[in-house]
Amino acid sequence: MHRHHSRRNVLPPHFAEPEASPVAVWPALSQARCGVQCCLIQGKIPRSAFRRHKVIPNLVYYAAACQTDFPAPTSRAEIAERTARMCQLVEQTVIGYEPFFDVRLLVFPEFAHAVPIYDTAEKLMERLAVELPNEHTERYARLAKKLGCYIQTGTFLERDDRYPGAVFNTTLLIGPAGVLARYRKVNTWIPWEVHTSPHDLPDYTEDLFPVVDTELGRLGVAICYDWLFPETIRELAFRGAEVLLRVSAYMDPWGTQEPMNWWTLINRTRALENTAYVVAANQGAAMSNYPPFSWPGGSMVVDPDGRLLAQADPGPGEQVVVAPIDITRLREERERRRGHDMRAHLRTGAHSYMGQDYLSPAGSAVSNKSELEQRIAAAKQLLPGKTTEP
After folding, report:
1. CA-to-CA distance for 179 and 176, rounded, in angstroms?
2. Which domains does the chain have, with CATH numbers?
3. What is the pTM of this model?
4. For 56-78, how does the pLDDT look when each residue is reduced to its tens digit (9 = 90+)?
5. Half-sphere exposure of 290 (CA within 13 A, CB side)
6. DSSP assignment, residue 257?
7. What Cα–Cα distance (Å) separates residue 31 from each residue in 28, 36, 97, 389?
8. Are strands 60-67 and 217-223 parallel, antiparallel or unpaired?
9. Which helix (H) or strand (E) holds 238?
10. CA dihedral for 308, 313, 315, 318, sign (positive or negative)
11. Is the N-terminal amide bond of 292 cis, ω within 30° of 0?
12. Radius of gyration, CA atoms only, the chain
């Protein structure tokens, strides 16, 4: 079911009438939109060219946070069916909204292709892990080229012969030119996820936190539990990310419901502390599909001041929400602001805790929950105020 701005939210400032006051933080875009509309109507910009994105007046476009509800696959043979449905969601969203605006960026949830339902990396490798890119990512690439859009895929369980025994939790950014970036989850949800973090491998030389400069702005992504570490998202921001993408499977009770609602709290906080947009796609699987947890959805788009621009109503189910991303205005705000610019105001030298390693790298591929428990216990001994002995 496609959803626009939740009825629980007021319209974002993008849609408000222009105010006389010059201090409005996010002024209306009506004048720019009118200019674009007039050009389209008068034939100065062919609509096909606008949809294929050869022209982006003022670099304003729409992003979609897409959530899915699939049964957990037991083998990699079931991935194709899920890929086909997500390709349908991309096409339906882009074409459905085309009379109103151009949806250029679409983000999908963690575990959209496969869920780590087995308790060891060996079993995941045998039954669910795939190499990337593959025939599934090629389908996304063809669709992105056809529609002129960018797709941040739901995650795959990935194997790579360069790192024997390792199963990564991986998302790809795919655009009209093909695969643009690969991100492997750094902060795995331990002790339950028996995935390998790239940080675990001493011979890992690829970029841990890629930020891609695209026609839609500079895009950076992190996966689910990554977002509970401010340092991880700040790393993306200090690499220049303007739109932060969250590919997530956030379960109850930490999901969208009060009194916890970590989902909304974290997304809004990361947006405002980094002066960046957040497009966050959460897993919307029913408990019967992805036991032992329920997955509350609530996918959202947040502006750089932490305002909710769109949010799916809490609860499982397939939903898509869309909202505008104004990169031109973001860049103006980042350049203009002297107050509340937490990137420029960061006193790096005042924070000594980053000089200490806590969770040490595994040194090799992660294989089971027991070894993760041991590493967590060792890390806890390094924390100040500990009350237990090793």
Report:
1. 9
2. 2-345+354-380 (3.60.110.10)
3. 0.84
4. 458 999 999 999 999 999 999 99
5. 25
6. S
7. 8, 9, 21, 65
8. unpaired
9. helix 230-238
10. negative
11. yes
12. 21
